[in-house]
Design a protein that fits this description.
Layout: H1 5-19, E1 37-42, E2 47-52, H2 65-74, E3 81-86, H3 99-104
Parallel strand pairs: 2-3
Antiparallel strand pairs: 1-2
Length: 108
């Protein structure tokens, strides 16, 4: 398989929609709107690599959330492989949240 840029964009958009179904258990906002997803890369073969963080290194879901995210990505049509890289730089702050998330949490 050798995906063109349009196909990669479609997969990336579908991955984003899948990530919007994953919620931080302590905050009633999905992880994409919360700003925990730093980068999504879809290669020519349909493999997806995601850089994500958590709200804190001491987050109680540090062991379970990344595998859940990987599983959601793998369920997207066209995805041939998925890798989730847990990163800590830059540090997550509430400024990373979308306006949708801030509105949902009463911060706007």
């Amino acid at each position: 398989m050798n995906l063109n840029s349009i196909q990669r964009t479609i997969i990336e958009n579908d991955v984003i929609e899948a990530l919007r179904t994953v919620y931080d258990p302590e905050i009633p906002v999905d992880i994409y709107e919360l700003g925990l997803i730093y980068e999504i890369d879809v290669d020519d073969e349909g493999a997806v690599a995601v850089d994500m963080t958590l709200t804190s290194p001491a987050c109680p879901v540090a062991g379970t959330l990344p595998p859940q995210v990987e599983s959601k990505i793998r369920s997207v049509p066209g995805v041939t492989d998925a890798t989730v890289n847990l990163v800590w730089e830059p540090t997550w702050t509430p400024e990373r949240m979308s306006e949708v998330a801030k509105l949902e949490l009463g911060m706007l």
